[in-house]
Specification:
With about 550 residues, the protein is α+β, with helices and mostly antiparallel strands. Helix content is about 35%, strand content about 25%. The protein has three domains: about 90 residues, 2-Layer Sandwich (Beta-Lactamase), CATH 3.30.450.20; about 90 residues, 2-Layer Sandwich (Beta-Lactamase); about 220 residues, PPM-type phosphatase domain (Phosphatase 2c, domain 1, 4-Layer Sandwich). It has twelve helices and 22 strands. The protein starts with a helix and ends with a strand.
């Protein structure tokens, strides 16, 4: 600060002292402060007396006396006993700070300094458009409309601001090396900028000289080679060139005479070895490709077998106009762990199942087959949903060394009355459409199947009336992600369901899938997507 005050003639209106026992401070001109001014109540006084061992600096403000953007520095005056007598302060305009920084760095190479507050406000800058304006406007580096200003701000306030980095200067197109230092008293950042061109010009000059020397030396060497050993080198090189062309065409049995002198002999030996390696690699690649094609064909068959295990003919019950049902499943891999099912237990009872096996691929598909078979066979024996899940859970827990589990919903619809009895084993809550609006079907959620053989499941009952619709799904719907790794989520699913009212069930589920695909925007499907819709039409 001493350097700053010595860089111009100091106007003593800018320096003043406030005392603890009087209101008006002492200044070069008493008329600077109005008669009712009490220095002891001003921030420059009240902050300084808190700690006489340090100075305080205040962010720029518009000073009506100086008619300029100004910042204040103050420090308490304490006696030997620690008693505070008063506070001395100095006002410095941002223009004075700017002039000082410009003069201190008058190197002629385009380098400059600027001062920035911790929140990004620019208190000094050689560019007049970025410096504080006479009307009190201050530019903020974090929000300034320039391609690299925000990135430069983040660098300055980071822990690495002492390491030089290249950015395009704010308000311009040239690139600069920037480095910054934070002032301990104010927390402000003093930032230095040096043009990249001024740093790299000596490097480019030296590089040009080295390239010229290299070219001259290379030309001399080439001249010696042409005159001295051309005949001994050229012919073997031509032979090697022809051999590599034949190998490139697939003739891996062709070999070069490895008895050539010196490095050419070593090169010939290496080319022969490479041809042998290529021959073995291609043979291995052919075998691996054939094996992958065989596995791919088997997986295609497995995919078809799994699809055939799920009901896929719609309308599923053309002779039952009381209700309509539709379901679909798109596995994330060739085979998946999701499954749905529906079947008539008797003439008046329709069973529906929605389940998701942990994991993916072949292991999940095998566990899915076991689970689906156990649920259907147990349900067809006439047992209630909660008893079915209790039996199936114990059977799945036996010999479950792989630690797999299943989330599932099983429900029985009493077709004449619309009574729906269901049990939930850790599965996503269904959607229920009543009075034309979808909402979540609140239910008691039990533990997953195959998790604990002592789990007890409790069923619930609701009534589904004509015109109502039930929508079941797996977590592949709500956990679909886009390129930003955002989840599709429950709110988007509910919005998509309510955006497609009264559509035929097939078109309804396709509309939901369309919304998921549009949200994913090309991101890879990470989990199986399975949906089932049931609508009650009445008698």
């Amino acid at each position: 600060m001493q350097n700053l005050t010595q860089s111009r003639e100091v106007d003593f209106r800018d320096v003043y002292v406030g005392f603890a026992d009087r209101r008006l401070p002492i200044t070069g001109l008493e008329t600077v402060f109005p008669a009712d001014y009490d220095a002891r109540l001003r921030p420059w006084f009240t902050e300084a007396v808190k700690d006489p061992n340090r100075a305080y600096i205040f962010e720029p403000y518009f000073d009506p006396v100086l008619s300029e953007m100004t910042f204040t520095i103050s420090r308490a005056i304490a006696g030997d006993t620690g008693d505070i007598w008063g506070v001395y302060a100095m006002d410095i305009t941002t223009q004075q700070l700017n002039d000082y920084l410009i003069a201190a760095n008058d190197t002629g190479d385009g380098s400059y300094y600027f001062v920035m507050g911790a929140d990004g406000n620019l208190f000094s800058h050689p560019n007049p458009a970025l410096a504080p304006q006479p009307d009190g406007t201050i530019v903020n580096m974090a929000t300034y409309d320039n391609g690299s200003s925000e990135a430069l701000y983040r660098y300055i306030v980071s822990e690495n601001h002492g390491e030089a980095m290249v950015f395009r200067n704010a308000g311009g197109t040239a690139s600069y090396y920037y480095t910054a230092s934070q002032a301990e008293i104010s927390g402000w950042y003093i930032v230095g900028a040096v043009p990249v061109q001024s740093v790299m010009t000596p490097v480019y000059t030296t590089l040009a000289i080295l390239i010229s020397l290299f070219i001259a030396t290379a030309a001399a060497v080439i001249l010696v080679l042409r005159r001295g050993i051309g005949k001994r080198v050229v012919q073997p090189v031509i032979e090697i060139q022809g051999a590599t062309a034949r190998i490139a065409d697939g003739d891996f049995d062709y070999t070069i005479d490895s008895q050539m002198p010196g490095e050419l002999g070593a090169l010939s030996y290496a080319i022969n070895a490479m041809a042998g390696e290529l021959k073995r690699y291609i043979a291995n690649l052919t075998a691996v490709t054939a094996e992958k094609e065989r596995i791919g064909a088997e997986l295609n068959v497995a995919t078809q077998i799994q699809a055939d295990m799920l009901p896929s003919i719609f309308p599923a019950f053309p002779g039952r106009p009381e209700f309509d049902i539709y379901a679909s499943m798109q596995p994330a891999k060739e085979v998946g762990g999701d499954f749905y099912d529906f079947f008539l237990i008797d003439d008046n009872t329709l069973a529906i199942v929605m389940a998701d096996v942990s994991g993916k691929g072949v292991p999940a598909a095998l566990f899915m087959v076991i689970t689906k078979t156990l649920i259907q066979n147990t349900a067809l024996s006439g047992k209630s949903p909660e008893v079915v899940f209790g039996i199936v859970n114990k059977m799945l827990c036996d010999h479950n060394d792989a630690g797999m589990f299943v989330t599932a919903i099983l429900g029985y619809l009493d077709i004449p009355s619309g009574r729906f009895t269901f049990v939930n084993a850790g599965h996503n809550p269904p959607l229920l459409r009543k009075n034309g609006v979808f909402d979540w079907l609140k239910s008691k959620v039990g533990f997953v199947l195959a998790g604990d053989e002592d789990t007890f499941y409790r069923q619930q009952e609701i009534t589904i009336k004509p015109g109502d619709e039930l929508f079941l799904y797996t977590d592949g719907v709500t956990e679909a992600v886009n390129s930003a790794e955002e989840l599709f989520g429950d709110p988007r699913l509910l919005e998509a369901a309510n955006a497609n009212p009264d559509k035929p069930l097939k078109e309804f589920t396709e509309a939901i899938k369309h919304e998921i695909d549009k949200f994913a925007d090309g991101a890879e499907q990470a989990d199986d997507i399975t949906m089932l819709a049931l609508r009650i039409n009445g008698q």
